[in-house]
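Lecture notes, unit on protein representations.

Consider one protein chain, 186 amino acids long.
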Amino acid sequence: MLLLLVAFYYPCCKYYVDPDATAYLTISKLYADGDWLNAVNGYWSPLSCWLAAFFIKLGTTAIDGAIIANTIGAVLLLRITHSFFIRYSINSFARWLLCIASSVFLAYAVYYQNYDDIWECFFLLYALRLMISHKFRHTPVYWLGAGVLGALAYFAKAYAFPFFILSTLAIVFCNTRAWRRANRVE
């Protein structure tokens, strides 16, 4: 449904460009042209620019490259959100309703949150999904995976860094406390 909505909105929304998007599109074009010296800057996070530049190199326009990159991020975000619904045993009907509502919002966000927000949410939720896993406490690969996802979230939006650190500390604290409570010998 998400992909159908993105395709349905395309004729009306494909030319929407906000002030931030003009900078992102310019930077994406610089990366695609190989002008890395002028593309790197302190204002804009690079992940979506890199993704859009990849699609520009494949022959799309800058706007279409951004839309494709955002659509991929939206699909991944919807998938990780669905995994939370399954993890917390949300009934099937409610899952469908929540996924439909999420699809409508994400199809809108593909066009009106042109850069990085969708990807940042995906990486942070994926890291959270790893951290709440029962295997996280005893599986170093999960720790590494969560760290890599945190780094990718940072490349999507710089403000993900403090959020990732604080959320990691909160999850570790809660998990450790729950584990101690469950394994208390009396």
